[in-house]
Specification:
The chain has one helix at 7-26, and strands at residues 30-35, 38-44, 54-58, 61-68, 86-93, 104-108, 111-117, 125-129, 138-142. It is mostly beta strands. The protein has one domain (28-71, 84-142): Immunoglobulin-like, CATH 2.60.40.790. Strand 6 and strand 7 (111-117) form a beta hairpin. It is elongated and about 95 Å long. Pfam families: HSP20. Residues 21-132 form the SHSP domain. This is Hsp20/alpha crystallin family protein. Belongs to the small heat shock protein (HSP20) family.
Length: 144
């Protein structure tokens, strides 16, 4: 049985591999959840040198940058090369009511963890209403 060679199929396969690698290097998988009066963001950055991790806030934009460098391999023949290298960057627009000046960042076991507290003025609070004749003064109190 003769096998037909399709050069375009092979080119499509190679191109798909390259594009998948680029797409993977451009993303940072993350989880985001609220735990009480803090938001917690976990970002997967395996193999990233901790010295290259940069977290910054500009107005309401949180930016995370990191770099994974290729290890110099001389005289090797690659059989598979799927782990992306290069610059990673991700930007998130955050809402009001967060204490962005009090973000805590840690990097352990390939995971960057950001803990963002809710601002005091954005926390729920109880309003005390006094009963009586005439005007009713209203006080803001803590929602304990």
């Amino acid at each position: 049985m003769a096998t037909r060679f399709d050069p375009f199929q092979e080119m499509d396969r190679v191109l798909a591999q390259v594009l998948a690698s680029d797409r993977a290097s451009a993303t940072m998988p993350m989880d985001l959840y609220r735990d009480g009066d803090h938001y917690v963001l976990n970002v997967d950055l395996p193999g990233v040198d901790p010295g290259t991790v940069d977290v910054s806030v500009d107005d309401r934009t949180l930016t995370i940058r990191a770099q994974r460098s290729a290890r110099p391999e001389h005289d090797v023949q690659w059989l598979a090369k799927e782990r992306p290298v290069g610059q990673y960057a991700r930007q998130l627009t955050v809402g009001r009511g967060l204490a962005l000046d009090r973000i805590n960042a840690t990097y352990a076991d390939g995971v960057l963890t950001l803990t963002v507290p809710v601002a005091e003025e954005a926390k729920p609070r109880r309003i005390e209403v006094q009963h009586g004749t005439g005007t009713t003064p209203i006080e803001a109190g803590s929602a304990d």
